[in-house]
Design goal:
There is one protein chain. By secondary structure, the protein is α/β, with parallel strands linked by helices. The protein is built from 8 helices and 9 strands. The chain is globular, with a radius of gyration of 19 Å.
């Protein structure tokens, strides 16, 4: 069993430095179940995966390239080598906002159970485990779920469970009323039905639990008529994509949707993300008790 990194990192560090220190406990020197050579080889094997059939896709051209081709999520320094991530160190930035700015997380999550939705290659999941939480990491892309599960095994992270599921699969009794915290970072703007997604997350929480949302934001005056994000360049087949059918949220409509499904919601906070023109919206919803929701127009009327 790997030592709990949260017990080793200096608590006097500023939050970002503290999180960086926690991530430094997942390096080659910390491997338990595999050798450094075997681990390095396996990570490089993941990075070469180009496979749509393993995801059940019929036509890869219709899918997000990032689901067909393996891309590492967030920067990870494994000590003797590093893997750059498409989202840089955004996993640490997101948790820092929830810790420092919104005071929705404490540095120690000992004794808490957390659902990490859309874990990608596990950046936030590893941090949450290092902070002491028992984490269930959910990822709909199989190649990424396999990678996070390999990290769990390699570092013997006994508080991490990885599930190859969609957010919309988290409706079984095993998920109901089970988590102190649900983290939904960088996921909601891809969901086909965000209100249903928010209700599923509400159902996953225990009474008194919190849902932490981070998503792409805009303001009412800049909201496109389609509600979708503008073109973000070309896909691997040369065709323009619209960031894979992303939706945009204003602070007002996200707060209204969260209230509709049962959350108590302080006003969301809109944050400018570094190095890009887009904004990121952070919101915290609390489930005080299980209540019914506004069901007008709901796509799945039988949802709990």
């Amino acid at each position: 069993m790997n030592a709990a990194p949260s017990l080793l990192a200096p608590k006097t560090l500023p939050t970002y430095a503290y999180l960086h220190e926690l991530m430094s406990r997942y390096q080659l020197k910390d491997l338990v179940n595999v050798s450094a050579d075997a681990f390095t080889k396996r990570i490089h094997e993941f990075l070469t995966i180009r496979d749509h059939a393993m995801e059940g896709f019929v036509d890869p051209a219709k899918q997000k390239p990032i689901s067909v081709e393996f891309h590492w999520g967030h920067h990870h320094d494994f000590g003797e080598f590093g893997v750059p991530g498409r989202m840089c160190k955004h996993h640490m930035s997101v948790l820092k906002v929830f810790i420092d700015d919104l005071q929705a997380l404490s540095r120690s999550l000992e004794g808490l159970r957390v659902l990490d939705l859309g874990c990608w290659t596990g950046g936030t999941s590893l941090l949450l485990c290092a902070m002491g939480a028992e984490v269930v990491a959910v990822e709909e892309v199989k190649k990424y779920a396999d990678c996070v599960d390999y990290l769990r095994y390699a570092f013997a992270i006994d508080k991490l469970e990885v599930k190859h599921l969609s957010l919309f699969d988290c409706t079984t009794p095993a998920f109901h009323d089970s988590f102190d915290i649900v983290l939904c970072a960088g996921v909601l703007h891809y969901a086909s039905d965000p209100k249903l997604a928010l209700r599923i997350m509400f159902n996953c929480l225990r009474d008194g639990g919190k849902c932490l949302i981070e998503t792409i934001a805009t303001s009412l005056e800049h909201l496109p008529a389609s509600g979708r994000q503008s073109s973000q360049g070309a896909s691997s087949n040369g065709q323009a994509n619209l960031d894979w059918n992303s939706l945009l949220f204003t602070p007002e409509n996200l707060a209204a949707m969260m209230a509709d499904v049962g959350y108590e919601v302080p006003h969301p906070r809109r944050v400018i993300k570094y190095k890009t023109p887009e904004s990121r919206l952070f919101a915290v919803g609390r489930r005080s008790r299980h209540v019914d929701m506004c069901r007008t127009g709901l796509s799945v009327r039988s949802v709990r």
